[in-house]
Amino acid sequence: MSSKKTILYQGKAKKIIKGPDRHTLIQFFKDDATAFNKKKHKLFKGKGVLNNLISAFIMTYLKSKKVPSHFVKRINDREQLIRKCEIIPIEFVTRNVVAGSIAKKLGLKEGTKLKKPLLEYYYKEDKLDDPMISRDHVVAFGWATASEIKKIDKMSLEINRYLKMLFIKKGIVLIDFKIEFGRLASNPKKIVLADEISPDSCRLWDKKSNQKLDKDVFRRNLGSLMKAYEEVASRLGIMH
Ligand code: TMP
Ligand code: ASP
User: Fold this and answer.
1) Is 212 in the pocket of ligand 1 (CB under 6 A)?
2) Rounded CA separation 81/229 (Å)
3) Residues 194/69, Cβ–Cβ less than 8 Å
4) According to CATH, where is 3.30.200.20 located in the chain?
């Protein structure tokens, strides 16, 4: 089977392979970690396996909460079967606590709790370093309709609530996360959660120590990325 795989898209940390039928694809998790739009790049043996397991676990959990997603099932250590969709070219970021780019941009202290979740949009375009945009930009340039954005905002807040609940039970605070959405190829009116949810795309801090259990470990050279990701997998009960 592997000799016949057709790669349709090479991303930084994943690749998309032709699926078994016209409405499905295979999402393959690579070991690459990149930061600052690939200015920093390193391979971590086994990271793809961990992110595949963690993301599949989270997508399954969200499915049990009736959040529609592209996720069908995990096929093996590296691959997931997903429903084909047209990805909306926006990174949807939800923040509960000040960290990362917002701390830097606005001169705020990392760790400051926000009064309510903050939704942000970034235009997915590596050449422009994924600039932050407003909701009006999304609609003005036709990346999504006003009604799609309304649906997505609602879904983002719902996903935030479920993820916060999931992680806090494991002693982890969900600081922020980035998600993507798409329109199902089989039914373009249907907006679904796509891509992945993993320590690559979330900020996760240990509740007691504030220790970082996410890609900031790599971005900021804070120690072993694999140990941090393994800790997340182990707390979620995926890996012992
Ligand atoms: P930021 O603070 O750097 O804007 O990141 C916000 C959240 O989005 C954080 O959880 C990391 C995640 N993220 C990605 O998944 N991909 C990216 O390209 C960036 C910049 C952030
Ligand atoms: N995803 C971005 C990159 O690949 C940056 C990041 O996650 O910090 O470089």
Assistant:
1) no
2) 22
3) yes
4) 2-85
Amino acid at 15: K
For range 205-225, the mean pLDDT: 98
Q: How far is the CA of 35 from the centre of ligand 2 (A)?
A: 4
Q: Does residue 161 surpass a pLDDT of 70?
A: yes
Which CATH superfamily groups domain 88-181+194-235? ATP-grasp fold, B domain (3.30.470.20)
Can you tell me the distance from the alpha carbon of 212 to that of 58, in angstroms, rounded to the nearest whole number?
19
Residues 6+ apart with CB under 8 A from 128: none
Q: pLDDT tens, 64-77?
A: 999 999 999 999 99
**Cα gap 17→19, rounded to integer Å:** 6
Fold of 2-85: Phosphorylase Kinase; domain 1 (3.30.200)
